[in-house]
Amino acid sequence: MSDEKNFEEKDEKEMMKHDEKVEENDKLSSITWAFILMWAGTVFLANNMGWFSLIGIDVDPNWSFQSFGDWRSSFGVWNLIALGAGAILVLETFVRLLIPQFRRNVGGSLIVAAVFIGVGLGGWFNWQYLWPVILIAVGVNILMKGLFSKRKDREK
Fold it and tell me: Residues 146, 92: contact at Cβ < 8 Å?
């Protein structure tokens, strides 16, 4: 019994040590959020300087979200920021999946990315359809995490 307890304590300590190491070395997350902030600043600056109208993009200068009924008239600044943030988070997810040193659970990032993209595309997708899809994605993420963690427990 004590050997089993010692093994569990050792395993828990190793997992905590690994989590601390991952958090310390997770430069990708810092880079991702830096790009999101730079994207937001670029969109605000482009809006204030009138750059969108110069390239023929109709953006509402009032910095408001555009709802489903308003999407034909213009696109809001916050919609662009949310859409870009979602795209950046999707790119982070692909990098995490492709490069082994950055691997970790990406389900939460994908859900946040889906919400950002949904807000960004709020004028093209009605929320009555989007929220159920997001809830389904959260459920699938929880299911997959549960299935894979059970498999790991059985392998021990």
Answer: no
Q: Given the structure tokens 């389900």, which residue do they identify? A: 107
Task: Give the helix ranges, DSSP H, for the chain.
Answer: 2-24, 27-49, 51-54, 77-98, 107-120, 127-155
Q: Could you report the per-residue pLDDT of 76-117, keeping only the tens digit for each?
A: 888 889 999 999 999 999 898 888 888 888 878 888 888 888
- Residues whose CB is less than 8 angstroms from the CB of residue 130 and which lie 6 or more positions away in sequence, other chains included: 118
CB 96 within 8 A of CB 32: no
Look-up: residue for tokens 């899809």? 133
35: which residues sit within 8 A by CB, 6+ positions away? 88
**For the whole model, what pTM was predicted?**
0.67
Two tokens at 87?
A: 């795209």
* DSSP 8-state symbol, 106: -
Encoded tokens for 126: 């009605």
Q: In this structure, are strands 59-60 and 75-76 parallel, antiparallel, or unpaired?
A: parallel
d(Cα 100, Cα 111) in Å, to the nearest integer? 21
Give the whole-angstrom CA distance, residue 68 versus residue 85: 20
Cβ atoms of residues 122 and 132 within 8 Å: no
